[in-house]
Design a protein that fits this description.
Strand 7 (68-73) and strand 8 (78-83) form a beta hairpin. The chain is globular and about 40 Å long. It is an all-beta fold and 122 residues long. Helices cover 0% and strands 50% of the residues. The strands form 2 sheets. Strands 2, 4, 5, 6, 9, 10 and 11 form a 7-stranded mixed sheet that branches. The chain is built from no helices and 11 strands.
Length: 122
């Protein structure tokens, strides 16, 4: 059974930075496309970023391009989300997800973590 555990969330001021981590266990991490999603209060969950199995290809939501960076370390079974220049509208629960596929997807993921809260104060 694949398990994903996120960490690194917290409270930060507008313009600040955070680094989220997601550790994968119970599966073969290097065979999964990995993604980050977020859900703000009263809103639907939305795609944030995704990374290919090798890490060579990434994709981002327009709202986070240039501020958030996804990366992965297959030796550590971990995917990261580096978050810079944070804005109050980035406040949400952030989830990592795994997709046993070759191609990056913005929608189809089979495994999900429990989420980590990110709060950006103005």
């Amino acid at each position: 059974q694949v398990q994903l555990v996120e960490s690194g969330g917290g409270l930060v001021q507008s313009g600040g930075s955070l680094r989220l981590s997601c550790v994968c266990s119970g599966g073969t991490f290097s065979t999964y496309v990995m993604g980050w999603f977020r859900q703000a209060p009263g809103k639907e969950r939305e795609f944030v970023a995704a990374i290919s199995r090798s890490g060579a290809v990434t994709a981002y939501a327009n709202s986070v391009k240039g501020r958030l960076t996804i990366s992965r370390d297959n030796a550590k079974n971990t995917v990261y989300l580096e978050m810079n220049s944070l804005k109050p509208e980035d406040t949400a629960v952030y989830y990592c997800a795994a997709n046993p596929s070759v191609l990056i997807s913005r929608t189809r993921y089979d495994y999900w973590g429990q989420g980590t809260q990110v709060t950006v104060s103005s």
